[in-house]
Amino acid sequence: MRLTPTERDRLLLFSAAELARRRRAAGVLLNVPEATALIADEVCEAARRRARHADAVLTGQSVLTAAEVLPEVPYIVRTVSVEAVFTDGSRLVVVPTPFGQVPDRDDMPGTVIPAESALPAAATREVVTVEVVNTASVVISVTSHFHFFEANARLRFSRAAAYGRHLDVPAGTHVRFEPGTPTRVALAPIRGGRVVVGFAGLVDGPLDDPGIREKALSRAHEWGFLDTDHPGDGNPENAAARAVRG
């Protein structure tokens, strides 16, 4: 049997809707794709059974209630759109408020939270500028959201000033540090939950927990990360050896 792409899409939608029906019958709260597929399938069936466009919309609004889906689904799925085949041709059906009206919340998905409000009181808010010197013999690149405090041990700059910060450049970009050439860069505070895991392993946890900053600085000096604020240079070879050992 040869099917057009539209017919294959319809069968895929039906299969997803059947899975949603089975889970709903078993008392499982539906997630976003399951709820969307079930509503869209019922709209397509209503159209196929010669319903009018307005009636198909009403059908879509009567399929599920907020109590039958996961709590966040009504806040994520505000409309369901599907192209249905009516007796007079295909038309787009848009089903608004498919689970009925839901109360607004301050933490609704998609809510824009000002970045400053996400910072704890202990975090410094302003952008700072540091001078960086690459003491290696090759170019070193640092990406936009790398915890700059933990950047390559052969970069010499104020590690304390860089703690809890990343390069203030567009996401996905990077800055190249040429050997021996001083480069001034702006650093912005890490936002959100301010939890740093991985990188060079100097923090590996919440940035603002008591004593973590001091412990990370001590670890950086012990491991050989160059620091303009620390008396006497460290030995970057120590940091490289630790990286090899994992």
From TrEMBL:
Pathway: Nitrogen metabolism; urea degradation; CO(2) and NH(3) from urea (urease route): step 1/1. Its EC number is 3.5.1.5. It is an enzyme of class 3 (hydrolase). InterPro entries: Urease_beta-like, Urease_betasu_sf, Urease_gamma/gamma-beta_su, Urease_gamma_sf, Urease_subunit. Pfam families: Urease_beta (PF00699), Urease_gamma (PF00547). It catalyses: urea + 2 H2O + H(+) = hydrogencarbonate + 2 NH4(+). Keywords: Hydrolase. Residues 227-246 are annotated as: Disordered. It comes from the Bacteria. Gene3D superfamilies: Urease, beta subunit (2.10.150.10), Urease, gamma-like subunit (3.30.280.10). This is urease. It comes from Kribbella yunnanensis. The gene is ureA.
